[in-house]
UniProtKB/TrEMBL annotation:
Belongs to the transposase 11 family. One of its GO terms (biological process) is DNA transposition. Keywords: DNA recombination, DNA-binding, Transposition. It comes from Bergeyella zoohelcum. This is Transposase DDE domain. Involved in the transposition of the insertion sequence IS5. Residues 26-122 form the Transposase InsH N-terminal domain. The keyword DNA-binding applies. Transmembrane segments: none annotated.
Length: 364
């Protein structure tokens, strides 16, 4: 009887401690935070379902318990919002009650290690799952009227990689923004202006690019945004690929309803193939016109280009805000697919960061 009573008291104390910890987390985060605001506008169930299709729960090969996929996805977002490495994300969730609550954890729960987080990202990257997550989140934002169908703006930015050769070597490097001087045939050849880097530790899928007097090694992020600057789709290439080659793969990720009111781009995207693609999808062509050798722009084309240039601030603001908030423009990852995952997470993090304020604005 005495032993039974002691066991009963131990169980009672354990249950009381657990309920108190849950209450304490709730009490100390009751005033709300950015994480709580995101929770109010996003239904995580469809997102969890997408993750579960690609992320196998149970035990890893080493016998280690695998964590819930939605928990790990939220940790990746926390890392992006706070510009943290995987190692620092683990510490942040341990130290922040609001982050812990956002992840659906209690004080007594163990936070996944950085290695678990890295393996999760790699597994979903290999299965091409992150584009679907961006699409699902955007569908939910559209229901709130946060995404607007008033034309799609497209532009590109560079993500630099530190995994380049440390030894002095000679490279043939692509010169960026020479479209006024190059024909489409010359642009096609330009993609081969590099030497394969065969050195341990070097990212073999990244490439060199020259902009003005500066050279960059890494990848190019092409994004399509709506009229509010929220990211609709992302396409990633090596830096040496000309912008015009990335437009069709980018737009293939969007339905006709999203682009039918026009695709607005600078002259770097001007090509016969791109214009024919837009025509085939019955989309308004808002690509700036490009001058050719011995073929200057007409007066009407110059006026048209000036009108299109006035819309560029939307996508430029998106790039600027991402850099200011998340420190984008650099990558700790190696390989095209992994860097594309980073670009997708940047897009999701950006859309979710702006959405709570936009929802409040729309409500009034």
């Amino acid at each position: 009887m005495i032993i039974s009573y002691i066991c009963f008291m131990k169980r009672t104390k354990t249950l009381s401690a657990m309920s108190f910890s849950a209450y304490d987390v709730e009490r100390r985060t009751r005033k709300g935070s950015f994480y709580a605001q995101v929770d109010t506008i996003i239904d995580w169930n469809p997102i969890s379902a997408i993750i579960d299709k690609h992320y196998q729960k149970g035990l890893s090969a080493s016998g280690e318990k695998l964590y819930d996929g939605l928990l790990l996805f939220k940790m990746l977002l926390i890392g992006m919002w706070n510009n943290l490495s995987d190692v620092k994300v683990e510490g942040h969730v341990n130290d922040s009650l609001s982050a812990m609550k956002f992840c659906g954890m209690q004080l007594e729960d163990s936070v996944p290690s950085y290695s678990v987080l890295s393996r999760f990202r790699t597994e979903l990257t290999e299965k091409k799952a992150f584009d679907s997550l961006l699409s699902e989140i955007n569908c939910q934002l559209e229901k709130y009227g946060i995404l607007i169908n008033k034309g799609t703006k497209v532009d590109a930015s560079i993500t630099q990689s530190s995994f380049h050769s440390k030894k002095p070597k000679t490279f043939e490097i692509v010169q960026d923004r020479k479209e006024d001087e190059l024909s489409e045939e010359e642009i096609e050849k330009q993609e081969h202006f590099f030497k394969e880097v065969a050195e341990y530790g070097v990212d073999k899928e990244a490439r060199w690019l020259k902009k003005g007097t500066k050279t960059y090694f890494g990848y190019k992020k092409q994004i399509a945004v709506d009229s509010n600057g929220l990211v609709l789709a992302v396409h990633t290439t090596a830096t040496n690929q000309h912008d015009s080659k990335g437009l069709i793969p980018l737009l293939q990720k969007l339905d006709n309803e999203r682009i039918k009111k026009g695709v607005f781009t600078d002259k770097g995207y001007a090509s016969k193939a791109n214009r024919e693609y837009l025509k085939g999808r019955k989309c308004k062509d808002k690509i700036q016109h490009k001058a050719q050798r011995n073929k200057p722009l007409s007066k009407w084309e110059r006026v048209f280009n000036k009108l299109i240039s006035k819309t560029r601030w939307v996508v430029e603001r998106t790039f600027g805000s991402q850099k200011r908030w998340f420190g984008v423009g650099q990558t700790r990852l190696k390989g095209l697919d992994k860097v594309h995952t980073q670009h997708i997470l940047e897009a999701i993090a950006y859309n979710l960061k702006r959405s709570p304020k936009m929802e409040i604005h729309l409500a009034f």
